[in-house]
Amino acid sequence: MSLRLFTPGDADDLYAYQSLPTVARYLYRPAHTRERSEQVAAERAAHSVWSADGDKLALAVCRRDEPGLLGEVTLTLAHARAAQAEIGWTLHPRRQGHGYATEAARALAGFAFDKLGVHRLYARLDVENTGSARVCERLGMRREAHLVENDLDGDRWGSEYIYAALAADMDGRADRLSH
User: Fold this and answer.
1) pLDDT greater than 70 at residue 157
2) Are 139 and 100 in contact (CB under 8 A)?
3) Which residue ranges does the record assign to the N-acetyltransferase domain (predicted)?
């Protein structure tokens, strides 16, 4: 598995999974149209700033031995002064269950703590997204909150878990995050 910057040419691969209702349901937004996938690929390819609240780093998750995307990992600077960032991951459903999300999230978390100086890293996820909860736990994140019916997705109320880890929590576990 490898991580790389997005290119505008990734639009087709993005659309292949971002257009699926089963994927979009956990992303707090509607499924992407083909046009939206093109726009997102272009925006991600052009954006590399990491200094202000809301700045986002999105990386393509790929296999070294085959073309195309497995999915993506993202890091959003939630609070620059407090050095807090939100981590997320999305994989094509055909690529789930093979450890790619854990491997990619572990690499991005290590980068966030070691290179970007993040103090606190957190993930927000739908309580029904058990796969992502397992990824958080494999990363050594703790469940800090269970928000009950805090999001209205169409006609369905959704509940959310917040997982987090501090840089200090990961001291002595650098090999766990960097491999």
Assistant:
1) yes
2) no
3) 1-168
Cβ atoms 109, 120 nearer than 8 A: no
| Whole-number Å distance between alpha carbons of 75 and 72 | 10
Structure tokens at 61: 């998750």
Shortest CA distance to 32 belongs to which of 68, 3, 72?
72
Q: What is the pLDDT of residues 61-88, one digit of tens each?
A: 998 888 889 999 999 999 999 999 999 9
Q: Which residues pair with 125 in a beta bridge?
A: 161
Distance CA 160, CA 87 (A): 15
Confidence of residue 173 (pLDDT cuts 50, 70, 90): low
Coil, strand or helix: which one is 51?
coil
Nearest Cα to Cα of residue 34 among 50, 53, 11: 11
User: What mean pLDDT is predicted for residues 92-101?
Assistant: 92
Q: How far apart are CA 86 and CA 65, in angstroms?
A: 29
Distance of CA 63 to the CA centre of its chain: 17
C-alpha distances out from residue 165 to 8, 70, 113, 154, Å: 33, 25, 10, 31
